[in-house]
Amino acid sequence: MTADQHPNHPSARTALSVNVNKVALLRNTRHLGIPDVVKAASLCLEAGAQGITVHPRPDERHIRRDDVYEISAMMKDWPGREFNIEGNPFHNLMEFAHDLSARGLPLHQCTFVPDSEDQFTSDHGWSFPQDAERLKPLIEQVHARGVRVSLFMDPDAQAMAAAKAVGADRVEFYTESYARAWPGPGKNKALSRFTEAARAAVAIDLGVNAGHDLNRDNLTEFLRAVPGVQEVSIGHALVADALELGYEATVKDYLRCIDEAFTRA
Ligand SMILES: CC(=O)[C@@H](O)[C@H](O)COP(=O)(O)O
Ligand SMILES: NCC(=O)COP(=O)(O)O
């Protein structure tokens, strides 16, 4: 199958999953419970976001344990929308996957990210073949709970077959290199790595997500160039925009950026 024949390209729109980490970060600076993370998530869904993402880091610097359960419980009111948890499956992610499933709470996707416990922010993807054998059984355990697995990956076309071979349903491209290059002279070179990696993934029926430092300026161009992106998860810039514009206007504007990518200029 070529990229252009993939059912997710070009007619299907990329889904927007809003990462609410940074709402929790602000909330955690006082003991007042504001801003309310669950309310933020539901306002984003009300505005049309197709999903919510959280990355509960082991130090709970932003998303805390209770947030994960409360957001998941809220997702029950939003059938058809997706809850995505990111994290390192060798730290705390598997516990959430098992526990939510045992409680019958919604969880649609686990994104495995190879961060260290005290990592400032995510800055690299999994490595193959080094990580292959240890990831396989964990992917199987998440699948046994009916949950999709996406692997956070650098845009390396050569690594797509290995991600598929360990059982991943999707990869999430770490987009910081593109965001950093945009709109400078290195942008096209940065983009071409994502385009090639996406083509390689789509050709073997491996789904493609993307995220990290995407924003209203760089999103449309990314989606125009990179085929078959099923979901973008966006947090830092989106929450910063929401401080100025409010959740509704912000989410609608990100959805407009996505729509524009599918409307040929
Ligand atoms: C995997 C990824 O790119 C995001 O989860 C990013 O790491 C956000 O995490 P922080 O909000 O902790 O920076
Ligand atoms: N997976 C990426 C994500 O959830 C959000 O990343 P960012 O927009 O906060 O950089």
Automatic annotation (TrEMBL):
Binding residues annotated for 3-amino-2-oxopropyl phosphate, in chain numbering: 19, 30, 213, 235-236
Known pathway: Cofactor biosynthesis; pyridoxine 5'-phosphate biosynthesis; pyridoxine 5'-phosphate from D-erythrose 4-phosphate: step 5/5
Location (main, coarse): cytoplasm
UniProt-listed InterPro entries: Aldolase_TIM, PyrdxlP_synth_PdxJ, Pyridoxine-5'_phos_synth
SUPFAM superfamilies, sorted: Pyridoxine 5'-phosphate synthase
Top enzyme category: transferase
Segment forming the signal sequence: none
EC number: 2.6.99.2
Gene3D superfamilies noted in UniProt: Aldolase class I
Catalytic activity: 3-amino-2-oxopropyl phosphate + 1-deoxy-D-xylulose 5-phosphate = pyridoxine 5'-phosphate + phosphate + 2 H2O + H(+)
GO molecular function: pyridoxine 5'-phosphate synthase activity
Keyword Transferase: yes
UniProt KW keywords: Cytoplasm, Pyridoxine biosynthesis, Transferase
Annotated positions binding 1-deoxy-D-xylulose 5-phosphate: 57, 62, 121
Keyword set includes Disulfide bond: no
Site (Transition state stabilizer): 172
Active site feature: 55 (proton acceptor), 86 (proton acceptor), 212 (proton donor)
UniProt subunit comment: Homooctamer; tetramer of dimers.
Assigned protein family: Belongs to the PNP synthase family.
Main function: Catalyzes the complicated ring closure reaction between the two acyclic compounds 1-deoxy-D-xylulose-5-phosphate (DXP) and 3-amino-2-oxopropyl phosphate (1-amino-acetone-3-phosphate or AAP) to form pyridoxine 5'-phosphate (PNP) and inorganic phosphate.
HAMAP family, sorted: PdxJ
Protein's UniProt name: Pyridoxine 5'-phosphate synthase
Gene: pdxJ
